[in-house]
Specification:
2 domains, five-stranded mixed β-sheet, 6 helices, 5 strands, 44% helix, 13% strand, globular, binds zinc ion
Length: 172
């Protein structure tokens, strides 16, 4: 099957066509469709999954306008270790260990990876307008065909610090 024949593509391209017909021409709807297919193919290449399965899963979970849903912040390019890829949710949980996540806003330790519960004053949410302000972690779970941005697990901070430390030494 070609990707243009799958359910996800049909649903997305129907939305694009309807926007084009009503369209003000203010947005590049067709360009977004091409971007989305290219990004699904990129994810397929990086994870060994099928681009069709990925696009179908994205379209199934999409509950708002595709022009906002499909963007680098939500489906980041997988390069280096900016996105950690796991086979299953169990593998992800094992890598996180104890449920401790660093809140990007107050710096406290939250037991919830999406909503800060470190203090009563902080109500920061990883899916809020500013996400995790670049201080979170992107994970992709192959069995779920889904990626998410979460607060950085405390267990991973040591790894991140090590990487930062190593790059510090490069310039000396
Ligand atoms: Zn907080």
């Amino acid at each position: 099957m070609k990707i243009t024949e799958c359910e996800g593509y049909k649903k997305l391209s129907a939305s694009v066509e309807s926007d084009e017909q009503r369209g003000s021409g203010a947005h590049d709807y067709r360009g977004k469709l091409a971007w989305t297919v290219a990004r699904a193919e990129h994810y397929a290449q990086k994870t060994g999954l099928s681009a069709i399965d990925i696009l179908n899963a994205w379209e199934k979970s999409r509950d708002y306008w595709y022009m906002n849903y499909y963007q680098d912040a939500n489906q980041p390019e997988i390069k280096g270790d900016n996105v950690r890829v796991f086979d299953t949710v169990e593998d992800l949980k094992a890598a996180i260990g104890e449920a401790k996540f660093r809140c990007p806003s107050c710096g406290g330790v939250s037991t919830n990876p999406y909503e800060c519960n470190a203090s009563q004053d902080c109500n920061w949410k990883s899916y809020g307008l500013f996400g995790t302000m670049g201080k979170g972690a992107n994970v992709f779970v192959k069995s779920e065909l889904r990626g998410q941005e979460i607060f950085t697990p405390v267990a991973w901070e040591h790894d991140n610090a090590k990487v930062a430390d190593e790059s510090d030494h490069d310039g000396r």
